[in-house]
Write a structure and sequence with these properties.
single chain, about 350 residues, alpha/beta, Isopropylmalate Dehydrogenase, 2 domains, 10-stranded mixed sheet, two-stranded antiparallel sheet, 14 strands, about 20% strand, binds adenosine-5'-triphosphate, binds magnesium ion
Amino acid sequence: MTKRILALPGDGIGPEITRQACRVLEACRDEGLDIDIEEAPVGGAEIDRSGVPLAPETLEKAKSADAILLGAVGGPKWDTMPDISKRPEKGLLALRKELNLFGNLRPALLYPQLVEASSLKPEVVSGLDIMIVRELTGGIYFGQPRGRETREDGTRYGYNTYIYDEHEIRRIGRVAFEMAQKRGKKLCSVDKANVLEVTILWRDIMNELAPEYPDVELSHMYVDNAAMQLVRAPKQFDVIVTGNMFGDILSDAAAMLTGSIGMLPSASLNEHGQGMFEPCHGSAPDIAGQGLANPLATILSVAMMLRYSLNEADMAARIEQAVGAVLDQNLRTADIAYTGTRQVTTEEMGDAVLTAF
Ligand code: ATP
Ligand code: MG
C-alpha cells in the first residue's frame, strides 16, 4: 500500500533544506519505494496565509499520513506577536500532542570525518555514537497544576508539576530497551531518584521492564552525574532514556559534542510507529535564502523516517552511507567547513548526496 508522507517545510532555512531532503525521498521513490509526498505550510508561513500556525486541514493531513517531514518554524517576523498561542512554535507543539508523539529519538553521532568540528578532544569524542530516548508528551512540561500567582502579602510565586504515570514510563521504557537491543545492548536510565519521588517510580518501572530484555544491560544515573559524564567520557553511553525536561537538556548537550548542529536528525514517534522527523536545529533566519544551510540533518531525518516509520532499514542505511560518502569527498557546507575542505551550497550538497545514493 502506498505510504503517505506530509512535508512541512516551514520557515527560514526550512524550505531549502526540506527541498533537498524531498529530492532524496523522490530518489527512493524512483528506486521502487511506494510513497506519495504532499506539502503544506506550517508555522510563520501558515500564520501569514491563514492567521494560525497549524491549519485544521493540515492537522487532518498529518493525522492520516504515515510520516511527517518537518523543516523548521519561526523567525523574527513572528517573535513579537502578542498572542503567544498563535506563535509558529505552537504549531509544532500541537502536532506532537495531537499525534501523541511521545517517543523522541535524538542520536548524537560524530562522523569520523568531522572529529575536528567538535569542541572536545578527539580521544574523548572520536567514535561517539549515542542515542537519547526522551519522553516528549508528559512530565513537568505538561503537568497540571501549573501557574504564576501572587500571595496575599504580595510575594509572587510560580509552580509546575512533575508527573508521570506508570503507563507513560513503561511505553517510553519499551522504546528505549528495544532501541538498546538493536544497538550496543546498554541502556542508561537517567533520573533524580535521590530527590524526586516521580523519578523513583521511573526507576522502579525501568527495573520492572529489565527482565523482559535480558540481553540489555540496564544502569541508572542521576541527571547531574549524567551531565558531567556526557562531557567527561561520553563514549561510555549507548542508549540513554529519560524524561521530557532532562532529555531536553541532555540531548542538546550531547548534540554539541558532535560540534555540528547542521548534522543532527531527530524522530518523534507514537505507539503506531507514525512519526515526525526533523533536524534538531531551528529555522536559522540569519542564513536563510543564501544557500549556506546544511541540509544533511534533514536528509538524515529522512533516513530515520525510512527506518522507524516506513520499515525500510536498507534504504535508510543507503542514505546514511551516501552522507558518509560526501563527507569523504571533503564536501562541506559553511557550518562544517574547515581548512582543506571544499565549501558547497545547500543545493550542491543535495546534488552530491543524490549522486552518492
Ligand atoms: P530555535 O529557537 O528554532 O531553536 P535558534 O535560534 O535557537 O532557533 P537555530 O535556528 O538552530 O537556533 O540556529 C542557531 C545557529 O546555528 C545559527 O547561527 C544558525 O545559522 C546555525 N544553524 C542552524 N541550523 C543550521 C544549518 N542547517 N546549517 C548551518 N547553520 C545552521
Ligand atoms: Mg534553539
